[in-house]
Write a structure and sequence with these properties.
Largest sheet: 5 strands, mixed
Radius of gyration: 13 Å
CATH architecture: 2-Layer Sandwich
CATH topology: Transcription Regulator spoIIAA
Order of helices and strands: EEHEHEHEH
CATH class: Alpha Beta
Strand content: 25-35%
Strand order of the largest sheet: 1-2-3-4-5
Shape: globular
Helix content: 25-40%
Number of domains: 1
Number of strands: 5
CATH superfamily: STAS domain
């Protein structure tokens, strides 16, 4: 899967890095694998798309389906943050669509923000350095 992730339990942060060719199957797989884990419920999230070389653009229906899945996995009444690093135009635009759909899903408790650089995202999350796996 071209999405690797590390969990920093001390910072309560999941840091995912997407790479190479990214498909909606990869993103759905990541969502199921990571966010069905009980030990990360209520954690903040960082997805870095800097190393993605090609994105298989999902249909708007598939994007909405992903949002519905993700919002359904949020812990009710527990706001968290989700930073997406999307340096190129396509990844940035897709991330902004995801952000917009997330904002209108009433089950969503994650505040989604999109950034062009990793330092900006880490600053917004309040994480000074890259999280290390634990």
């Amino acid at each position: 899967m071209p999405i690797d992730y590390r969990v920093d339990h001390e910072k309560r942060l999941v840091h995912a890095t997407a790479r190479e060719d990214l498909t909606d199957q990869d993103v759905f797989g990541y969502q199921y694998e990571v966010w069905s884990r009980e030990d990360v419920v209520g954690y903040d999230e960082l997805v870095d798309m800097t190393d993605v070389e090609h994105i298989e653009v999902p249909s708007s229906g598939r994007l909405k389906e992903l949002v519905q899945l993700a919002a359904g996995m949020d812990l009710p009444n527990t706001p968290t943050k989700f930073a997406i690093v999307a340096p190129d135009r396509l990844s940035y635009d897709l991330a902004r669509f995801f952000q917009a759909y997330r904002q209108i899903d009433p089950r969503s408790t994650k505040q989604v923000e999109v950034f062009k650089t990793l330092p900006e995202a880490l600053d917004w999350l309040g994480a000074e350095t890259r999280p290390e796996a634990r």
